[in-house]
């Protein structure tokens, strides 16, 4: 089920979406590399993932710490559009998406629309939470109106629920299942469940609760490895994988083809 409808995005069940963590962008504290160099790195990562047999690609400005809250400047939007166009071309027809941290959801939709990407990953879609950057509030109403205004209805919205790197004390009386149900009601196209931090696996209880309360496609967005994939196989509709595919399992390192190959081999075994 998808609020936007349309044909299925992926041709294979339980797709693996590999993360391309683009280098620090111009104007950010760690920035410095020319945009052309960042494009070359992102394209190389994308090519490695495609050759390994992943079913989708997503790019994210993970190196732009500390992140702005809720929006980014035109220099980030422009750079991410250039990167998105290059990654989409390198993906060879694989579905592609984008996330812009932190909670720059409108900019992500604009980038996806301009570059012809298929989906955006958003935080703060329903309810609110306190993240590293401060208070992140619900964006569903304004975001979906913006998507309609720019003619980007084909761009699907994948919403994190009770997302990682955040305190959810202000919604402690709202379960993760209720949050996912609210995301469905607010017209998200998919929901994402994570662990408490990048590289941390989700709680199996959280996955089961979301599955029981929400009819949308359910993606797991952190901590999935070749060793634990089988535990989550039945409960998930797909897997967003970043850290696992990097040297020593660290998101900030280079892609490790052996780790990618091992994961995809296990994915293929489970899918038989």
Strand content: 15-25%
Structural class: alpha/beta
First CA to last CA: what distance?
A: 24 Å
Mean pLDDT: 95
Characterize the overall form. globular
User: Reading side by side through the largest sheet, how are the strands ordered?
Assistant: 1-2-3-4-7-9-10-11
Question: Main beta sheet, described?
Answer: 8 strands, parallel, barrel
- Low-pLDDT regions: none
Number of E-type strands: 11
Radius of gyration: 17 Å
Q: Could you estimate the helical fraction of the residues in percent?
A: 25-40%
Order of helices and strands: EHEHEHEEEHEEHEHEHEH
Q: How many helix segments?
A: 8
Question: How would you describe this structure to a colleague?
Answer:
The structure is a single chain. The mean pLDDT is 95. The chain contains eight helices and eleven strands. The strands form two sheets. Strands 1-2-3-4-7-9-10-11 form an eight-stranded parallel beta barrel, surrounded by five helices. With 272 residues, it is an alpha/beta fold. Helix content is 35%, strand content 17%. Helix 1 packs parallel to helix 2 (74-90) and helix 5 packs parallel to helix 6 (204-213).
Ordered list of secondary-structure elements with their pairings:
Blueprint lengths: L15 E6 L13 H18 L3 E5 L13 H17 L5 E4 L5 H11 L3 E4 L5 E4 L2 E4 L2 H10 L6 E5 L5 E2 L8 H10 L4 E4 L10 H10 L4 E3 L8 H4 L5 E4 L15 H14 L2
Parallel strand pairs: 1-2, 1-11, 2-3, 3-4, 4-7, 7-9, 9-10, 10-11
Antiparallel strand pairs: 5-6, 5-8
